[in-house]
């Protein structure tokens, strides 16, 4: 009930009040503070509720602010990155602060931290180079056939570091154990990506005459921060780890395939139709599988739901940071609203799959031989 109140009332209400005050970028952080206190001792749910609250805030803000002059409500909400920061605050407050660290635990995390930094840097730079080769990012004032594309490239500048930090943190976390790793390893991955991929992104954006390349560098830092927050949660929740990694890989394959179809000028209608169907079905199947697997392993409905929505929430956080930017053509606004719609769909899918598995698990438990004998 507290989650429903936060998502449906607190987040939209704060957003509309801050819109009137002209400080909408603070909505995410204030919602995170409220979530942390409303959901004490439930840090994962507090963070999830904060990001889900942005969904209802966008919807209600768009409807109520439709007749208001000025920038689009969803564009104004982009806060670099206000809502992901709010989710982190919610997590820390609900968890009652950071876990205690020890000298032994910190020293044992040195090698994994170094591996995380190097891996994140390599993944970040590799994605930037590949995206440039495949023309997924162009860093130009004007994209042929697509109008101005600055914000589309800016979104990618956040997405690649975020994905790199998550994957690198998960890989490096296998080398250490203990509560310290959830903080040290993601921060090291963030730093490694910032020191390598950040400058590469800055150099690539120097060709844009109308926008400062420094914004691209800041986007890289913001993306790494979003990835570090997601990785920290994933290292403490096995289901979220599985959900994030699998969804990132599937999302990356989809983007690369779409870019290949575009630059290869494929005219096969059946291939484009097949790709469209796969792009629609694959996320749903993946979310259902992750949710069912986690719910079965943990025998927990909530754990399965968190695992299922972790990946879609990460992608939504990235697009939420920049906004739909309708004046930047459909290359930014269409993926933004698709990311927005994917989260409630993922929530329903994950809830259904996890509910089915937990009910079957409960039925099996009730008919065990020892239960019958008793």
TrEMBL record:
Q: What keywords tag this UniProt record?
A: Membrane, Transmembrane, Transmembrane helix
Q: Which residues cross the membrane?
A: 6-39, 77-98, 110-130, 150-171, 183-202, 214-235, 242-261, 267-289, 301-322, 337-358
Q: Taxonomically, which superkingdom?
A: Bacteria
Entry annotated with the keyword Zinc-finger: no
This chain belongs to the protein called Uncharacterized protein
Organism of provenance: Nonomuraea spiralis
